[in-house]
Design goal:
The chain is built from 7 helices and 2 strands; from the N terminus they run E-E-H-H-H-H-H-H-H. The longest helix is centred in the C-terminal third of the chain and has 36 residues. A two-stranded antiparallel ribbon has the order 1-2. By secondary structure, it is mainly alpha-helical. It is globular. The chain starts with 6 loop residues before the first strand and ends with a helix. It has one domain.
């Protein structure tokens, strides 16, 4: 949980639900509905909404292709695009009026538990992709170029997702905290400026997270 996270209620007596979790449920529900709408309303001559979705998918495809190459980009697109879309929606949720100003709805990525969850999911996927690319290569890369590198390379493997989680949490939580404090001190004007800056900031954080994940993924699946 992020600092100051308040438990709203508990599920089954042990699962604490905070404002970040509520916002995450809302985001997942919205994304699910949007996905179903797009899936069942595809046309050869797309309308404005389909054009917008296709433009976004094409941008992400080109972005990941530039990092991984065509083959790997297509192979791992679903995971990487899902990460990017969730993070950017989670980041932008903090820009909606009232979000972050109350304990009941907060930007999910301002909670360390959420960003750690993303880090764990990334770690597991990197191991899966590495093993799928080649079991021999997967274990060999931990003892290359020398066997005594094993402890350091194993530590590095755990540091990668941890650094992703902490970087995302620190930046989003810091931005949320600054905006909240400015709203308390100067409720007119200054918070609006911060929200405008956050439009660029939120997209940048989603891009950095998925870009670094793509680089780690390329390293984990590189057979040469």
């Amino acid at each position: 949980m992020g600092e100051g996270s308040k438990v709203i209620f508990s599920l089954f007596g042990f699962l604490d639900v905070t404002g970040e979790v509520v916002a995450m449920w809302i985001i997942l529900a919205v994304l699910t509905v949007l996905s179903l709408i797009v899936k069942h309303n595809l046309h050869e001559r797309p309308g404005a909404f389909q054009n917008m979705i296709e433009t976004g998918v094409e941008y992400l495809d080109n972005f990941f292709e530039g990092l991984l190459g065509r083959k790997k980009s297509r192979q791992y697109f679903a995971f990487l695009a899902s990460l990017f879309v969730f993070i950017i929606f989670a980041n932008y949720s903090g820009l909606f009026p009232g979000v972050g100003m109350t304990d009941y709805v907060k930007a999910p990525t301002s909670s360390l538990s959420v960003t750690l969850g993303l880090g764990v999911a990334t770690f597991c996927f990197l191991q899966f992709a590495g093993l799928r690319a080649g079991v021999k290569h997967y274990f060999k890369r931990f003892v290359s170029p020398m066997f005594f590198m094993l402890p350091l390379l194993l530590l590095d493997e755990f540091i990668k997702p941890a650094s992703l989680a902490l970087r995302l949490f620190g930046n989003v939580f810091g931005e949320e905290t600054v905006t909240e404090e400015l709203y308390t001190l100067l409720p007119i004007g200054v918070p609006v400026v911060m929200m405008v800056l956050s439009i660029l900031f939120c997209a940048l954080q989603a891009m950095v997270f998925t870009m670094l994940t793509s680089i780690y993924l390329d390293e984990a699946t590189e057979l040469e």
